[in-house]
Design a protein that fits this description.
Helix 7 crosses helix 8 (191-208) and helix 8 packs across helix 9 (232-248). It is elongated and about 95 Å long. It contains ten helices and eleven strands. Helix 10 (276-292) links the parallel strand 10 (263-269) and strand 11. It has two domains: 3-124, 2-Layer Sandwich (Beta-Lactamase); 142-306, Alpha-Beta Plaits. With 310 residues, it is α+β, with helices and mostly antiparallel strands. A six-stranded mixed beta sheet has the order 6-8-9-7-10-11, with helices on both faces. It has a five-stranded antiparallel beta sheet with strand order 2-1-5-4-3, sandwiched between helices. The protein starts with a helix and ends in a 10-residue tail after the last strand. Mean pLDDT is 86; it is low at 10-14 and 303-310.
Length: 310
Amino acid sequence: MKLSQQRLSLAAGAAGMGVWDWDILQNKMTWDDQMFRLYGMAEKPEHYGVEIWQSRIHPEDRLRALADFRTAVRSEKKYDSEFRIVQPDGRVGDIRASGIMIRDEDGNASKMIGLHRDITEGKNAIKALEESEKRYRELSIVDGLSQLYNSRHFYFQLKIEMDRANRYEQPLTLLLLDLDDFKVFNDAYGHVEGDQVLRRVGQVVKRCLRETDFAYRYGGEEFTILLPMTTSMEGAVTAERIRTEFKKEVFSPVPDQKIHMTVSIGLAQYRPQEEIKVFVHRVDQLMYQGKKDGKDRICTEVTPQEQFKW
C-alpha cells in the first residue's frame, strides 16, 4: 500500500471508516483492517476480493448495490451507494460506500479507491425518530378512549371528502350517532363504567365499517362516521348494522346485572357545494329527531316512501 493510501487508511480508521482499493485489471481487492471489522470478520481470510463483498450484501439490496458499482466503473460518476450487509452472526447493518475511479493515460479505468462507513446507528436513530413522529401524529388525531379519530381530524377529513365528492360527483354520506340515556347510566354507575361503554362503541363501529370509511368520537357520547362513495340508502344499511350490533353488547356495571345500551343515529347524504356547518347541522337534527321519535333508531333524510326508521 502506498504512503498516501496508508495515510488515508489511518485517517479513515480514526473516523470509523474502512478503506479499500480494487485493481480492476487484476480483479484484486485490498481491504484495510477497519474494513474487516465493519464486515464482522475477526481474522483476515486467506483469499478475498469482490466476491466476498458481494456475498455479504443483503440479498434484497444486492442487485442495486452492484448496479451502482458498475455504473461508477463505466462512467465518470463518483461511486456512491447505500446498502445493507449481513454479518457472520446474522446481524444486519447499513453501509454507506463511496469511491473514485483512477484511470490510465488512455482513459481506461484501472483502479477504484473508496471508503465504507457503518451508518447503522444513524439509520436506526432516524427510523426511531420517524416512528416517534408517526406515533405523535396518530396520538394527536386519535381519541384515547374510543380509539377512533377525534373531532379535530373529523373536520379535516370531512373537508377533503366534500371536495372529492364535488370534484368527481360521487356520493358522500355522514352518520351522527349518540348513545341513548348515557347520562343516566353514568350517574348510576360512575364514569369508569361509562368509559367502558364508550370503548365498546368504538370497537363495534370499527367492526362494522369498511377500510375506506372513517369514524370519529365527535364529543362526549356522540360519534360521527364518514362513508365516502356511499348513498344515504347504502349508508342506512351500515347504520343499521352498527345499531343492532351495539344493542347486542352486554354491560355488567354491578354483579348479576346485565344491561343493553342503544344508540340513535342521524344520517344524510351530502348535497353538492353544501357548506360543512350546514351538512353537519342537517345530520345533527336528524339524530335528535330519532331521539324524539323514541330512541334506538335511525332517522334519515329521504322521501316518505323511502323513510328508514327502526
